[in-house]
Amino acid sequence: MTVAMRVEALGVRYGALVALQDVSWHVAPGEILGIIGPNGAGKSSCYDAATHMTLRSGRVWLGDREVTGLPPHALAALGLKRAFQQNAFFTTMTVLDNMVAVLAREGGTGLLQSLAMPWREARRRAALEQEATAMLERFGVPHGMHALRPPNIPYGSQRMLSIALAFGRGAQVLMLDEPAAGLGGADMAHLAALLRRLRAEGVAIVLIEHHMDLVMSVADRLLVLDQGRALASGPPQQIQNDPRVREAYLGQAA
Ligand SMILES: Nc1ncnc2c1ncn2[C@@H]1O[C@H](COP(=O)(O)OP(=O)(O)OP(=O)(O)O)[C@@H](O)[C@H]1O
Q1: Boundaries of each ABC transporter domain copy (predicted)?
Q2: Which DSSP helix (H) or strand (E) runs through 90?
């Protein structure tokens, strides 16, 4: 089986507290892995550990390449992109300019070259704007919002913008930490449709999510964390009927 990303025996400690212990998972291209668990189960620690945002033990591979020692920006350059719970954009720039900035950073010519050849810079800017417009529409941020500043567009569109900015020019693996937080029904449906589209394009998605309806409807496989450890893994339907999972969530056997 082709694997887009694999983590082995991840562990995170905060002082004496063991937040994550011996957690392993993998995700394939064109697959959505949902990571769920009750409050404090270790989901965010797992996310931070996998993307090397925190001190941790364990090993990480992207495809066949071991990337255990690499910092987050190097992982991003290799195609591991991540979006956070909080929307992340420049609030003083327009929606379009936010997208242009990401695309320019990921594939742009250097400042010196731009200064030396300003006519080339103007052409490049026009091409970036065209690309950014297409990207935003692909991620469900309509054209009418592109000239606005992000705080002035609806919350659901802000989330889609955040995911588009995280995705940038592309991702082999997209990790999302609670993308549905604060979304209503229609926005949730847009998000689910976007995730399915990205999956169909071959992106491997790791979805850390509290919202059960979303995760159950889009994930191909689930990993359940409880008290920092892997409690169960398998297809959503199997997990839904697992008495250990019900007990972890409800505090009682089903
Ligand atoms: N920076 C930190 N310092 C100390 N303890 C932390 C820190 N971050 C998380 N913890 C603790 O580690 C454990 C796992 O937390 P984590 O945030 O990974 O769980 P979670 O499943 O994401 O929780 P939630 O669903 O509530 O966001 C919890 O006991 C939490 O209190």
Answers
A1: 5-252
A2: none
10 CA to centre of ligand 1 in angstroms: 15
Report residue 213 as tokens. Answer: 């309806």
The reply to whether 97 falls in a domain is yes
Instruction: Please tell me the distance from the alpha carbon of residue 231 to that of residue 169, in angstroms, as a whole number.
Output: 35
Whether residue 223 sits in one domain with residue 161: no
Q: Which residue has the tokens 């998605």?
A: 205
Residue 134, SS3 per DSSP: helix
Model confidence at 116: pLDDT above 70? no
244 and 134, same structural domain? Answer: no
Query: What is the rounded average pLDDT of the residues 123-140?
Result: 91
- The stretch 66-79 carries a mean pLDDT of 94
C-alpha 166/C-alpha 174 separation (Å) is: 8
> From ligand 1's centre to the CA of 233, what distance in Å?
21
Domain that holds residue 44: 1-79+171-254
For residue 254, pLDDT beyond 90: no
In this prediction the pTM is 0.90
Residues with CB under 6 A from ligand 1: 14, 17, 19, 37, 39-45
Domain stops at, among 148, 170, 192:
170
Identify whether 85 is part of a domain.
no
Are both 71 and 177 inside the same structural domain? yes
Residue 42 CA, ligand 1 centroid: distance in Å: 6
